[in-house]
Amino acid sequence: MIAAILAANVIMQTNPACIPAINEGPTKAGDYDWMARHQAVLDWNKTHKSDLVFIGDSITHGFGGDPQAYPKWRGNAPDIWDKYFGPRNPVNLGFDWDQTQHVLWRIQNGELDGLSPKAIVIFIGTNNTGHHTSEQMYGGIVAVVDATRAKCPSAEIVLLSIFPRDAEVTENRKKNDRVNEALAKHRWGEKIKFIDMNPYFLLPESQKRKEECFSDYCHLTKAGYQVWADAIEPTLKEIWSK
């Protein structure tokens, strides 16, 4: 057992998807100030009690809610966000461009400190696709879940699979599917539920996506956000009924 733990630690230390890192990409590109958004999250958490936390990348960021990174922008589906999640005191910790290592840095640097949420929804990994192997991606996502659990031990964690990428079955889609298969087989601890989102976004008995749900290779339309909300609502209802 000790040998297995030590081996796992060595793998994490050499896996770039597991090494916490600042994301300089969006700031250098002039998209948005990543560090300013991080500070906005810290400031928000000082004055708000969040019972529902969303952690992720641009797909989560684009849903809606607070805090946001762009002036006068409320997300792509703020009405859906408010209807489904608003009564649960949510906070949106989705950051455009983020990969697992960037989420790990944010968790390490205070974004979950002092929070005692009922549930945390994690959706991360698609931005790792072009940079890491499926094994590295899997390790990075597991590391995010573990870091989240360490910060919020009483929260229920809802981990979502990577949504189907690209209109056709490309190599990137296949890579993400391998990651999802590994996540589905992973022995998660208590209060962690994995939800495979592919059945919600693929046509019945097909590998073709419901294209009305996607605006490009991975981002969601308002219809896509509705599918997401409907998919996790039964799980959230169950958590809130306890």
Provide an overview of this structure.
- By secondary structure, the protein is α/β, with parallel strands linked by helices.
- The protein has a single domain (2-240), classed as Rossmann fold, CATH 3.40.50.
- It is built from ten helices and five strands, in the order αααβααβαβαβαβαα.
- The chain has helices spanning 2-14, 25-28, 34-47, 58-61, 78-85, 100-108, 134-151, 171-185, 198-201, 222-240, and strands spanning 52-56, 90-94, 119-123, 156-160, 192-195.
- Helix 8 (171-185) links the parallel strand 4 and strand 5 (192-195).
- Helix 6 packs parallel to helix 7 and helix 7 (134-151) crosses helix 8 (171-185).
- The longest helix has 19 residues, at 222-240.
- The chain is globular and about 45 Å long.
- The termini are far apart.
Largest sheet: 5 strands, parallel
Shape: globular
Mean pLDDT: 93
What is the CATH class name? Alpha Beta
CATH fold call: Rossmann fold
Low-confidence stretches: 1-8
The CA-CA distance between the termini, in Å, is 34 Å
Helix-strand topology string:
HHHEHHEHEHEHEHH
Task: Estimate what percentage of residues fall within beta strands.
Answer: 5-15%
How would you classify the helix and strand content by structural class? alpha/beta
How many separate domains? Answer: 1
Percent of residues in helices: 40-55%
CATH superfamily: SGNH hydrolase
Brief characterization of the structure:
With 242 residues, the chain is α/β, with parallel strands linked by helices. The chain has helices at residues 2-14, 25-28, 34-47, 58-61, 78-85, 100-108, 134-151, 171-185, 198-201, 222-240, and strands at 52-56, 90-94, 119-123, 156-160, 192-195. Helix 6 runs parallel beside helix 7 (134-151).
